[in-house]
Amino acid sequence: MMPERAAGLRVRVKVCGINSDAAFDAALAAGADWIGFVFFPPSPRFVTPARAAELSARRTGGPPRVGLFVDPTDQAIEAALAVLPLDILQLYAPSARAAAVRQRFGRKVWRAVGVGGREDLPHDGAAADALLIEAKPPAGAMRPGGNARRFDWSVLAGWRAPAPWLLAGGLDAGNVAEAIALTGATAVDVSSGVESSPGVKDPALIRAFVAAARGSAPGG
Questions:
Q1: Which pLDDT band holds residue 140 (cuts at 50, 70, 90)?
Q2: Is position 110 within any domain?
Q3: Which domain holds residue 179?
Q4: Do the domain assignments include residue 5?
């Protein structure tokens, strides 16, 4: 039996890897709940903190801004926060490091967890305010994360999430409703699934994804 979503609960959507004016504007217009910036140079979605600040300044307020970091030093996080007051730090880092960052910077911390099978599902969420559940990177991958791949969602059957969580990895407008129905996810994260080519966000795909995610909720 899959985790159940409360009837009528609005599915929340994070659009990650925002790196252009058009992508930022489209995500906000579509009603994204979080805007994500990638501060990992090997990614085709990489932006500098200064560029992320320029994009964020296109609209004061609005959805929380999320900064994605991979095994960051304190100095790297400090440099980003100096130009952009991120609301959430999304980390690819061990649990202990996530807890230390959370204490050091006083920001909400999301920790990404790669899943290949049931043995990878987290049972302790104390180090983070939320968990991002996605596919393990394939062997030899140069980047962490789902790498546009979905995992076997059936492994979530019977899992009791230890913290709020988002489903990620391989999601697009064509499968997000199925993913939500099968897993009971109340929040989803998309990046490559709304791109016309690696790193290039497509406003039409962003709109379609948010609509599909919201349409999957009862009364959505």
A1: low
A2: yes
A3: 12-215
A4: no
Is residue 4 situated within a structural domain?
A: no
Cβ pair 72, 105 in contact under 8 A: no
Q: What is the pLDDT of residues 112-127, one digit of tens each?
A: 999 989 999 999 888 8
CA dist., res. 98 & res. 91, Å (int): 7
Helix (H) or strand (E) holding 99: helix 95-105
Mean per-residue pLDDT, 41-59: 97
Contact (CB, 8 A) for 151 and 115: yes
Q: How far apart are the first and last CA of the chain?
A: 23
| CB neighbour burial string for 73-109, b if at least 16 within 10 angstroms, e if fewer | eeeebebbeeebebebbbbbbebebbbebbeeeebbb
Tokens of 48: 């500098």
